[in-house]
Protein 1
Amino acid sequence: MKMNETKINEDTNPEIEADLNELAKICCRSLAGESDAGMDRSENLLKSLLMSGYVGKKNRSFQVDLENRVKEQCRDCAMHRGGALSSISEKLAKKFADLARWESRSPSDASPSKPANISSATDA
């Protein structure tokens, strides 16, 4: 086991590890030219990562973590298709960031509260 791999495992939990590994498998299949059916599943995995607390980890880059796992799981594909891997991981990282931003918004961020009816809006 590599030194940085040990650190990753200490900072995560089994759910995070499983979700990241599944996302890496989807990326490997995509790099190998298999259908993108797994990409539909990726949003659910990203949501699961978020709910498992991944976003709260310090000094973490989702894209780097994902690319490292892909390189471990399918080294040849990842090595020969580095540009494609960067593109896939960047898209997933953007989706993850968007989900994290959406989940962290409070109702006051979206719009100010409104009165329920006319009598609560006035002194009538």
Note: The radius of gyration is 20 Å.
Protein 2
Amino acid sequence: MTISSALDDLLVRYQEAYQQAAVPLMTEANGDWRAPIYVGAPTLVDDSIEFVKWQPVRQAQALDFSALMNALEQPFHQDFVEYFSRWFSADLAVSWQQHPFWLLHMHGEEDAERMLSNQAGHVLMKRRLRQSMTLFLGIAEESDDLLITLDNESGAVGLEFVGQNQHETLAANLAEFLAKTTPRVVEFEH
């Protein structure tokens, strides 16, 4: 199974889970972005946070990692590049063996710029700490310091705390990880 087919399948399962639960797909909106995933007008919550309905949208042109890879003088694992070069989407609430995670995605072009900048900071931190290079894919729900990362050399998906090495391998590769994740339905509260 390829990353693209595993990700496509996960997004189908994700949307079906929400449809079966009769819960709309909602995400926090960024009013400064013209995100293609936003559907309709945002709903204001707590006088400051806006939520909006969303749907995944295929990227018309795959995200280009070449400038960042050249600047870092480091190629990124192809699985990672393929994962972030296929869809614009809100972050996905998933479970892996009963553990709740959020798989990160990009709402649109502006969010892609932010993600690339954050990845650069992560890679530079790993270099400074003389640790094996990983690229982050998501976070654990119970702790913002617990990252889901992809080992840039082996392609293994694992867990690491910020500033630490991967301490647990979840799957040998990203396609396997995506295929074994289960969508979680998270209700929008307003």
Note: The longest strand covers residues 143-151.
